[in-house]
Amino acid sequence: MMRALWTAASGMVSQQTNVDVIANNLSNVNTIGYKKESAQFKSLLYQTIQSKTTSANGETKPVGAQVGLGVRNASITTSYKQGSMTASELDTDFGIDGAGFFTVMSENGELLYTRNGSFNWSLGNNGGVMLCNSEGLPVLDTMGQPIELDPEYDTSKISIDADGNVCYPDETNNPQPIGYQIGLVQFSNPAGLEKASNSTFKQTAASGEPVFEVDNENLKKSIIKQGYLEASNVQVVDEMVNLIVAQRAYEMNSKAITTADDMLGQANQLKR
User: Fold this and answer.
1) Is 68 helix (H, G, I), strand (E, B) or coil?
2) Which one of 33, 45, 73, 231 is most buried, by most CB atoms within 10 A?
């Protein structure tokens, strides 16, 4: 009977993690560029009670007797399904339509990747302006360098085309590229990225090396939309249904513990 207690307890622990993941999805429903996460499960070891069974006539049956020992969380996977585009009034907001990621550089020089295109112009090291995210980290171009413009440029006139080229009006007031292009990278396995804070990701061995879209003709190019932001791909209705299912599974496992406890109590009463 103790097997049932521990098996049901493993189910309660796993479902608690499931609820934690769903709660995180719901809390980030309005987070720009957030990607939905899902808890995955796997069964634990099986205990063999009988490796060979026989019928009443002594004939061997092909099926043995094994009892599972519970469940555990196998992984928490991320869905990189495209989120909806929401209009913004800021010219420094950019949404990615495609599989690409922006690249930013942390304070210690580490490269981080994000779908959050809420950027701003800030003062650069040479007195000019530099494109940064909301944390002040510089956004990198296709050469892996910060996008830093000379002081002569008026940020209110700067625009970004669909390919990420930084443009400035010429004498006829037509936007022309000025030699800077926002770098977009893709990964062969984005599910292998390590999640960091502030909606950023880190490269891992599982994700593979980042590949700049501009350097690989075999990749489907992403489109940058100025004046838009990619919303979270979390569907509140789906998460509420998943939350109900997880709660019911938790209750069923707790009921199994109560039942096993009652059966143990009944067994203890046999001697009286």
Assistant:
1) strand
2) 33
Enumerate the domain spans of the chain: 2-80+235-271, 85-230
pLDDT < 70 stretches in the chain: 1, 52-58, 271-272
Among the listed residues 161, 168, 103, 99, the one whose alpha carbon sits nearest the alpha carbon of residue 131: 103
pLDDT in tens, 151-186: 888 888 889 999 999 999 988 888 888 888 999 999
What would the DSSP string read from start to end of 156-185?
GG-EE-TT-EEEEE-TTS-EEEEEEEB-EE
Burial class (CB in 10 A: 0-12, 13-18, 19+), 76: middle
Cα–Cα distance, 99 to 8 (Å, whole number): 41
Residue 26 CB contacts under 8 Å (≥ 6 apart), including other chains: 234, 236, 239, 243
Asked if 157 and 169 count as a contact pair (C-beta separation under 8 A), the reply is yes
Structure tokens at 156: 């209110």
Q: What's the CA gap between 270 and 248, in Å, rounded? A: 33
Cβ contacts of 81 within 8 Å, gap of 6 or more: 35, 36, 233
24 membership: H or E segment, kind and range:
helix 2-27
Average pLDDT of the chain, as a whole number: 89
From the list 86, 22, 43, 29, the residue with the least C-alpha distance to 242 is: 22
Give 34-69 pLDDT, tens digit per residue: 999 999 999 888 887 777 666 666 677 777 777 888
Contact 20, 27 (CB under 8 A): no
Residue type, 49: I
Structure tokens at 190: 């984005």
pLDDT reported for residue 263: 86
